[in-house]
Amino acid sequence: MSTHAPVPPARPETPASPGPSDGPSLAVKERRSKAPLILVLPTLIIVVAALGYPVGWQILTSFQKFGLMQQFGAAPEFVGLGNYAALLADANFWVVLGRSLLFCLLAAGLTVVIGFLLAVLMKRVGTAARLILQVSMLLAWAMPLVAAMTVWVWLVDWRRGVLNWILTRLGFEAEGHNWLAEPTTFFAVALIIVVWMSVPFVALSIYAGLTQISEEVLEAAAMDGASGIQRIRFIIMPLIAPVLSIVLLLQIIWDLRVFTQIKLLQDAGGVANETNLLGTYIYQMGVGSGDFGAASAVSILMLIITVAISWYYVRSLMKEEN
């Protein structure tokens, strides 16, 4: 006969009832999840309202034959992809596209390199010299574009320009030389102007990134025997890589869409058909020739190129976010 007492069956565990604080915490989490959407929504509405109609009109017009008659009320003729087909078959378009891509890559690359060097210089010099550099760049950056271009056109003017006057005094035969007549010198002048106007933004942005690098890290690298170039290459540049990538992307986009500088230089003595970039090419087709359908097609292709250039960086941001 067994002497052990019978063991009572175990009671089934009941799920714990939610505490009094669970309800409010879930509500707080839900509000927090909606907060970014609420904050972004006003900006999204403004962007859609400001850009939705122009972009929609461009897309619609790119599928139409829209010329001067349509400006006076005639109904546009739907041509489908006819504008795009004619554009892609035009050899001049490919020349302008290649010229624009080359110009924007050169301008963006030079801008980032010079801006990086100026940012490093501002980090190394004393307070007084740094303030002089920063104020000088801010003044150059804040100068109105047309006012700055007026000064630049005066500097390179072939009749009374300062550049020709200085070169003549130095013994060169530069009197009466038109720097804007030849495409090579035209784009050299345009490249200098575009880079000069863009460097302040890049330099100040990179300098802001440099100020976030710990001095202890650089001092430790110097104690380990790393030279200045090695510290820049293996420590500074990897740490500010996100800043470099965003300013390079922005510069490529801005320089691809450059218009005012090229147009004013063309008006000052350049040959438009030989110096067109995408911006002035669209202007010439639309306002100059009255073919707004073809000009809209070029605009949409330009938008597609810009999105394609930006897509790599956007994907990188999404990967980092995930």
Structural account:
By secondary structure, the protein is mostly helical. The chain folds into two domains: 28-62; 68-321, Orthogonal Bundle (MetI-like fold). Helix content is 75%, strand content 1%. The protein contains 15 helices and two strands. It has helices spanning 22-62, 68-71, 82-88, 91-124, 127-142, 145-156, 162-169, 183-210, 215-223, 228-239, 241-256, 260-267, 272-275, 278-288, 292-321, and strands at 64-65, 77-78. It has a two-stranded antiparallel sheet with strand order 1-2. The mean pLDDT is 85.
Would you give the CATH topology of the largest domain? Answer: MetI-like fold
Main beta sheet strand tally, sense and closure: 2 strands, antiparallel
Q: State the total count of DSSP E strands.
A: 2
What is the class of the largest domain in the CATH system?
Mainly Alpha
Could you state the CATH homologous superfamily of the largest domain? MetI-like
**Number of structural domains:** 2
Number of discrete helical segments: 15
Low-confidence stretches: none
CATH architecture of the largest domain: Orthogonal Bundle
What is the percentage of strand-forming residues?
under 5%
Strand order of the largest sheet: 1-2
Q: Percent of residues in helical segments?
A: over 70%
Order of helices and strands: HEHEHHHHHHHHHHHHH
Q: Indicate the radius of gyration in whole angstroms.
A: 30 Å
Summed over residues and divided by their number, the pLDDT gives a mean of 85
- Overall structural class, as computed from helix and strand content, comes to mainly alpha
Distance, first to last CA: 67 Å
Shape annotation: flat
Region (Disordered): 1-26
Transmembrane segments: 37-60, 93-119, 131-155, 186-210, 231-254, 292-314
Organism: Zhihengliuella halotolerans
Membrane topology: Multi-pass membrane protein
